[in-house]
Amino acid sequence: MLHISLRTSIGVLRVTTDWPTLIYFLRARMHPWPPWEERDIAVEVRLGSLDEAGDLWLTGDSGPGARPRTIRVADSVFEIDRDSIRGIVPRESVHKGVVLEWLWYALPICCAPDGWEALHAAAVERGGRAVLFGGGSDARKTTRALRGMQAGDARFLADDIVLLNRSGLVRGWDTTLHIHPGRAGMVGTEGSTFDSAGKTRVSAANLAERQELHIAEILGEMEPHAGEGFDSTWIPKRNGLRGLRVAVQNRMEGLGPLSFFGGDIVHARGYAAGLRHHGMEATLRGLDWADYHDCDIVHLMHVQYDWAQEAGLRAASAGVPLVVSAITHGSPPKGILEPLVTAAAKVLCYSESERAFYLRGFPEQPTEKFVVVPMGVPADLYALHGVTSTPSVFVAGTYSVEKNRLNVLRACIKLNVPITFAGPMDRETSQEYVWQLREEAGNWKGARFFGLLHGSALWDQYRRAHVHVDAAYIEPFGLGTLEALAAGCNIVHTKHSWAAEDFAQYGSLCEPSDVDSIVAAIKHELSRPRGWHGCRPLTWSEAARVLIPIYTEVCGAALPA
Amino acid sequence: MADLTIATPFAGYELPYLDRWLEHLRDLCICADPAEVLWLDNSLSPMFGEYLLDASTTIPAPVRILEERLKIADPATAKADLPWEAKEVQASLMWQRARLEVETEWILCLESDVIPPPNTVELLGEALASSPPVGAISGTIPERPHRVPNAIVPMVWRMRIGEDTTIRGLPEPGLHVPAVDRYLGLNPDCPRDGMEIVDGIPFGCMLSRRSTLLSVPLEPTWPPCNVYGSDQLFSRNLRKLRKLHVAVHWGVRCGHIKKMPDGTFEDLRNVTHIPTD
Q1: Is residue B136 scored above 90 in pLDDT?
Q2: Under a CB-based contact definition with an 8 Å cutoff, are residues A483 and B227 in contact?
Q3: Cα–Cα distance between A339 and A342 in angstroms, integer?
Q4: Does residue A91 register a pLDDT over 50?
Q5: What is the pLDDT of residues A152-207, one digit of tens each?
Q6: How far is B176 from chain A (nearest CA, A)?
Q7: Vertex B126: Cα angle to B107 and B36 (nearest 5)
Q8: Architecture of the CATH domain A245-376+544-558
Q9: CATH-assigned architecture of domain A379-527
Q10: B44 vs A241, B57, B81, B100, B101, CA distance in Å?
Q11: Rounded CA separation A147/A158 (Å)
């Protein structure tokens, strides 16, 4: 456990936590925070005291001499290590995002100065004064605030958390709106995160000028934002089931000492997050996980590798319904695919050509076993659609021979078009390969080599690029291409991909071993305006919705009547 | 990261801002939990030595202070008053000494005018550990370039890789001095996060392995060529001799305290832009 001071836009925050949470916290939450206070607020957050009932308590105060406040943490948020009395969020924890949400909600309570109370409400500014909309969960607080804004006479002040003091001053805490994705476009720019109630965070376009206003009226019933027994709806309930319990199983880390980050990891995370938006209890599990008592169905990534087969067969032999995402690399022989294809109730393919490959290879299996499902992209990427880019090329993916970065670089040098690479470098051959790339670039100044990028840093690169190129020798799908497409980049995709036919409709295909073919494709895509060209990729939430009837069917068939 | 040493050389002129720097070092130590903090005192001043000794008790990690006796000029002399080459030779010798003294696997080279964010070691360590082609990684240190007035650029260099030349442009095969181009720049704005391979990084806030640091010669600058420092030569040696790259982490945004001509200190915080080529 770590003791650390964070300098955030609201002041200094002292937290006791573990590294995975902290890093995630820093990356995800530092920037969107509203500048709430000018002065520093020191918040001591101790994840330390465990009461007799086994609940963890969190204590914070706004500085020396201030009254400390205490909130109970529901034990569904943390894996509580009862021996050492500390809250631990494991690296693989599905609740990591929830912990962040929780910290987000808990902070105003802990660091509100004396005399201020945090209310569960939405607020707008009308005529220089604040109007508050109160009520419990799903009391249509935000909707009513939005209606006021759409009528034109109100401006957004805060959503979900409003601070109110005894002299009637109102201060907005959370200056983003939490609304259902479909309504996002009505009020502003859709943000990065979904909370567990399936709402997205939106930056309001019509913000109040001042963040501290006198109160005018309160509409609806007010309730404290949180207090003893704090247990908002966004905490997934273990006991009150809201849907099927799905374990999305994949390699969580690399199989060796390195991370081997890849599209399958993004894919598994995306599905799990998307399923949670629909109220399902989706958890991400590592390959060695075998405790099936709290799940109704296992969704396994990969069909052809030993390590996936071992995990899949273990689940199948335990009698748990199994769905497998194919993610086929190349055209492996039937013998390699057979164990999992036979054991699985459904095999999910990502293109018609991939499905056709399985239908050809397994004529004895029922055709309805092989289903084509969509991939998804983070909703953040849509905000990038239509931005002004520079005439440049971006390549997202691993630095490895099979991904064939070298020929793309050669093509760009030939065209004298700047190119940016980003991706993990931890494959065995990466060291030599990165060296080759830099040797090839020599003194040509157009090439940039980034490491693995996540979140806004990656979106930044998509935003700047005009064309995204994936010229891999083997590509099961090409998630990077889909993300680039969603961000509005023109795409050049390899012919040796199961999704080549799909991507050919919206961009250009290239022969990876032929530099001239890559040159021609890039040239063509640079000459076209940037855009979706008729394709609008699904978000992970939308993609995961397709899985629900498949799961239901599989469970219905497998469970005793 | 327990197997880490944070090494800092001191020249003696840091007193006006040392308290502030130490505060940030404390935050860094709380966060990074180093096995040791190594201070090289090159001030030749007993008073400064006493100050360091007092300060060491407030650092939440074991501090080892070594006295160096390299200083050419009086300790009160400001850095700006020393000849450029003399400073570079000293800096290089200090890092030579540091890398020999360090006993841990990881070393964070931290200069006394660089203010690192508390999560520096975590971010740099994570990036370095997951990128075997990279031998050393630096935080983003803002600097005022001579050529662009009112700009603050990151201390990251682009060098011509193939041709080693002297300052006069005459190729001398035995000399092996890289031609440093200028501060890096292609994109109009600074990336917000992520690790990028570059040609040259400074020692100001640099994480590397002890074995990597020991595996290449640390050369001071070559006197006739006043365009490159020991750090640029280190980056170049790493690439030439070990086939390892150096990288900058755009998410680790350090502060940089600069002495102004009028004797005051300026605290550079943010990179305002990267000049385009």
Answers
A1: yes
A2: no
A3: 5
A4: no
A5: 677 888 777 777 776 677 777 555 666 655 555 555 554 444 444 455 556 565 56
A6: 17
A7: 25
A8: 3-Layer(aba) Sandwich (3.40)
A9: 3-Layer(aba) Sandwich (3.40)
A10: 71, 21, 17, 21, 20
A11: 14
Query: B182: Cβ–Cβ under 8 A, 6 or more apart, which residues?
Result: B145, B147, B157, B158, B275
Q: Please indicate whether, in this complex, the C-beta atoms of B197 and A450 are within 8 angstroms of each other.
A: yes
Q: Is B259 exposed, middle or buried (0-12, 13-18, 19+ CB in 10 A)?
A: middle
Check CB contact under 8 Å for A6 and B118.
yes
- Look at A446 and B186 and tell me if their CB atoms are within 8 Å: yes
How many angstroms separate the CA atoms of A66 and B63, rounded? 35
Domain around B219 = 4-268
Q: Where are the domains of chain A?
A: 2-111, 116-219, 245-376+544-558, 379-527
Q: Quick one: tokens of A62?
A: 């706004």
Instruction: Name which of A263, A520, A464 is nearest A509 in CA terms.
Output: A520
Distance CA A103, CA A272 (A): 22
Contact across the interface for B191 and A460, Cβ inside 8 Å? yes
CA distance A473 to A492: 13
Query: Tens of pLDDT along A534-559?
Result: 888 888 888 988 888 898 888 875 44
* 100-119 of B, contacting A, C-beta below 8 A: 117-119
pTM across the whole model: 0.68
Residue B37, token pair as written in the block: 């903090």
Residue B200 is given by DSSP the state B
Identify all chain A residues contacting B127, using CB atoms and an 8 Å cutoff.
Answer: 451
ipTM over the 0.90 cut-off: no
Q: Distance (Å, rounded) from C-alpha B123 to C-alpha B119?
A: 6
Q: If we measure between CA atoms, which residue out of A148, A153, A267, A159 comes closest to residue A204?
A: A159
Among the partner-chain residues B27, B119, B192, the one whose CB lies closest to the CB of A460 is B192
Q: Which residues contact A134 (CB under 8 A, 6 or more apart)?
A: A119, A120, A121, A141, A218, A219, A220, A221, A222, A223
User: Which DSSP string corresponds to A126-177?
Assistant: ETTEEEEE--STTS-HHHHHHHHHHTTS-EEEESSEEEEETTSEEEES--EE
Q: Which member of B133, B163, B194 has the closest CB to residue A431?
A: B133
